[in-house]
Amino acid sequence: MTRRRGSLGGHTHEFADLAGLLAAATPERSGDVLAGVAASSEQERVAAQTVLADLPLTTFLDELVVPYETDEVTRLIIDTHDADAFAPIASLTVGGLRDHLLSPDTDTTALAPGLTPEMVAAVSKLMRVQDLVSVARRTPVVTAFRSTLGLPGTLATRLQPNHPTDDPTGVTASIVDGLLLGCGDAVIGINPATDSPARTTDLLHLVDEVRTRYDIPTQSCVLAHVTTSIEIMERGAPVDLVFQSVAGTQAANEGFGVTLAMLGEAHEAALSLRRGTVGTHCMYFETGQGSALSADAHHGVHQQTLEARAYAVCRAFDPLLVNTVVGFIGPEYLYDGMQITRAGLEDNLCGSLLGVPMGVDVCYTNHAEADADDTDTLLTLLGVAGCSFVICVPGGDDVMLHYQSLSFHDALYARQVLGLSPAPEFAGWLEKMEMLGADGRVREPALDSAAMRALTAGVR
Amino acid sequence: MSGENAPAPVGDDPLAALRASTRARVALGRAGDALPTARLLELRAAHAAARDAVHSPLDADDLAGRIAAELGVPVAHAASAAPSRSEYLRRPDLGRRLADRTELERGEHDVVLVVADGLSPLAVQTHAVPMLAEILARLDGWRVAPVVVATQARVPLGDEIATAVGARSVVVLVGERPGMSSTDSLGLYFTYDARRGRRDSERNCLSNVRPPHGTGYAEAATTLAMLMAEARRLGLSGVSLKADPALPES
């Protein structure tokens, strides 16, 4: 353990180890206060940032925040680190990395294999919102299955048609509603009310039928546990994407009932189905700040660096989609709109720098100090930052999970004000369905239009 | 205006079928790319109701008075270590601990019933008295401690209350996190051999008690009483306890 000191405001602030320094340097998070690792004053926070700025990047390869011997995520991070990709930045400090990333001459996308989660988390702490946005915007990550995601100038959407009892007609109604509003190009993804293999298979068939009937260039996913997906793939269920929630430590992943070996097995199985048409990325991961603390598996590390470590887990399995569910758990981890906004932008940047296709579930619970103005702000910033996709539910109200996400309308807004398009294959489909206007906007369908009649026929 | 999202049939509108098939907010229409004003205001009203449910404090004296008067049982007060609503939301650890000064009296009891404001004081204001009545009617053979009304409380606070009053088990009636379509949902958590450090997997939970939309009082109380009887027989509660194979897992 290396103690480090920094002076500010007439005080010398001392940081016991690297994890303590990173935690103290982080913008305020209620979850870090809860974990007892947050800076004790604003001046201590800036003192930590000042010390951090002078820290050589090589420190993160020598001093590990979670022990190598006992944590397979740390082993993954260290064992897959690419020295050649790291070489151009090997002599930099964390502050130097920030300057380097902001330089218009830097190819930020080439750095990913040489960066570790701890490095990107550290540099994000020195960044203002405008840095988080501009660097992410210059770091696109493109993936494909039946649609191509993450291309500059696009913003895709997960259509989330949840229903409290998985009622097929109710789920279909939400799917149709989303399609009529031009959403669903990243995935049509359902959180099932129970994790039963039979229920999961039924829902997969339901979405697959809608997709094939209207020849929609998108992919489906029922967000069941990875073991459920493996089991039903063996029985021939139409699995496009395998889903799993992951976190940044082995112990937290064990809390989710998942290991790296299981994810590898699922990835191989999904690849072998060869269901993609324009690409082979077939994994979908969800993450979110606070999950390791919530599982009592945080090793004294603060929540944002652990979140970045979750992206290292994701990138090992070539995902099509990764999203942070940024405001889902509640105010004990991200207290208000300010904390949620900053966390969403940090997550988007850190994932992008690590080469992960980042989306964000822009959301909040009713006991957080946040409202629709906050989600509008974060959505707009993410659109500018080149975020790959966002999650949308009817009216922004998820009637199963009891939280507020974005609505389909919100996606229309973001695409309109920022001049962003859906995934190209999906845009082509909207055109074919005569749902896309000459100005690139999703048309308000006439009640007697062919598209309306065709799509709503399924729920009559 | 309520937070309910009742579907309304609309003649020959092909979207009427969508609306009728789910409580999700489908077929809302458009003003340009945005929501029409009426729909926007409906969403704000639902959000406001949910927010108010979180932040309106529990009138603990009123509730205790009603419990004593209508059910004829003694009532005690308890508060968690969270000094304010804001701290309560930020620091779940404080909401799980009793305040330093407690007026709870120790005795010899099998079970204590705790009414905890949780994330929806509205839920306990609305449902606690009739729910308690149904539970108490089914506790023959249990030595029941005075009912405790607890504020800024999370479920594990019940474990500390049980220890303080000398009860072996605890039932916590707690206001659940309000959604936009349900602001007053009550949860019941039963823990056998309650004491500090009990994990969530050692409790049994019945959620969404909220007649007429959710589970009814009598139904919830009957299930709870079955669980409690089984717990006493087996000496445990939690994931290994199932009073009825058809019960949802907690």
UniProtKB/TrEMBL annotation, chain A:
Cell compartment(s), UniProt: Bacterial microcompartment
Cofactor note: Binds between the large and small subunits.
Keyword annotations of the record: Bacterial microcompartment, Cobalamin, Cobalt, Lyase
InterPro entries: Aldolase_TIM, EutB, EutB_dom_2_sf, EutB_N_sf
UniProt GO cellular component terms: cytosol; ethanolamine ammonia-lyase complex; ethanolamine degradation polyhedral organelle
Binding site for adenosylcob(III)alamin: P192, Q244, S294, M400
Residues that, per the record, bind substrate: R158, L159, Q160, N191, E286, D361
GO BP of this protein: amino acid metabolic process; ethanolamine catabolic process
Required cofactor(s): adenosylcob(III)alamin
EC number(s) per entry: 4.3.1.7
The protein's annotated pathway: Amine and polyamine degradation; ethanolamine degradation
Chemical reaction(s) catalysed: ethanolamine = acetaldehyde + NH4(+)
Family: Belongs to the EutB family.
Summary of the function given for this chain in its UniProt record: Catalyzes the deamination of various vicinal amino-alcohols to oxo compounds. Allows this organism to utilize ethanolamine as the sole source of nitrogen and carbon in the presence of vitamin B12.
Record's subunit section: The basic unit is a heterodimer which dimerizes to form tetramers. The heterotetramers trimerize; 6 large subunits form a core ring with 6 small subunits projecting outwards.
Protein name (Swiss-Prot/TrEMBL): Ethanolamine ammonia-lyase large subunit
Organism: Pseudonocardia sediminis
Gene: eutB
Automatic annotation (TrEMBL), chain B:
Binding site for adenosylcob(III)alamin: V155, E176, C205
Cofactor remark from the record: Binds between the large and small subunits.
Keyword annotations: Bacterial microcompartment, Cobalamin, Cobalt, Lyase
Record-level GO BP terms: amino acid metabolic process; ethanolamine catabolic process
Places the protein is found: Bacterial microcompartment
Pathway: Amine and polyamine degradation; ethanolamine degradation
Cellular-component GO terms for this entry: ethanolamine ammonia-lyase complex; ethanolamine degradation polyhedral organelle
Essential cofactor(s): adenosylcob(III)alamin
Pfam families assigned: EutC (PF05985)
Catalytic activity field: ethanolamine = acetaldehyde + NH4(+)
Database matches in InterPro entries: EutC, EutC_C, EutC_N
Keyword Zinc assigned: no
Primary localisation category: other
UniProt EC number: 4.3.1.7
Any one GO MF annotation of this record: cobalamin binding
Function per UniProt: Catalyzes the deamination of various vicinal amino-alcohols to oxo compounds. Allows this organism to utilize ethanolamine as the sole source of nitrogen and carbon in the presence of external vitamin B12.
Sequence similarity: Belongs to the EutC family.
Subunit structure: The basic unit is a heterodimer which dimerizes to form tetramers. The heterotetramers trimerize; 6 large subunits form a core ring with 6 small subunits projecting outwards.
Protein's name in the database: Ethanolamine ammonia-lyase small subunit
